[in-house]
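Researcher: Go.
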Amino acid sequence: MSAMSNRATVIGLISDTHGLVRPEVFEALQGVSQILHAGDVGPADVLTELATIAPIRAVYGNTDAPGRPDLADRIEDVIDGVRIVVTHGHELGSPTPPKLVGAYPTADVIVYGHTHQQLITKAARRVVVNPGAAGPRRFKLQPCVAKLYIYQGQADVELIPLGIQGDAE
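Model: Structure:
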């Protein structure tokens, strides 16, 4: 990341763990001030394990049991002047950046999961990010997490692949 990362608030982004916390996550998210999980967490011990890195907040995914007190429907927060929304995205059917921007028009940063495909879309000072799936490999996609950097009201995102592209599971 640029010089922005030296003084920025750094937030870990993770999604679609589906019960697996890969060992690489601990190094990838080292030093973050908090972690935001965009759903499909799996058992509660996933959050306990991730909380050893930094405080964590998480939303429900379509595979998470309803009624869990450790999962929110959606997270909406303002951090260092940046309005952030975290959602799994399944409530929109097949989530896409345009659908998410339409659903959350006041958000500066929208974090979502569900598709397992890491993606960063930037437009008009807005960032839509899917950190990818950090859990069991599915759909031949590289497991991934992300870091969100916030500095002076601006947001930037870095994707962090986990493991080696094409590694066997």
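Model: Residues 97-103 form the longest helix (7 residues).
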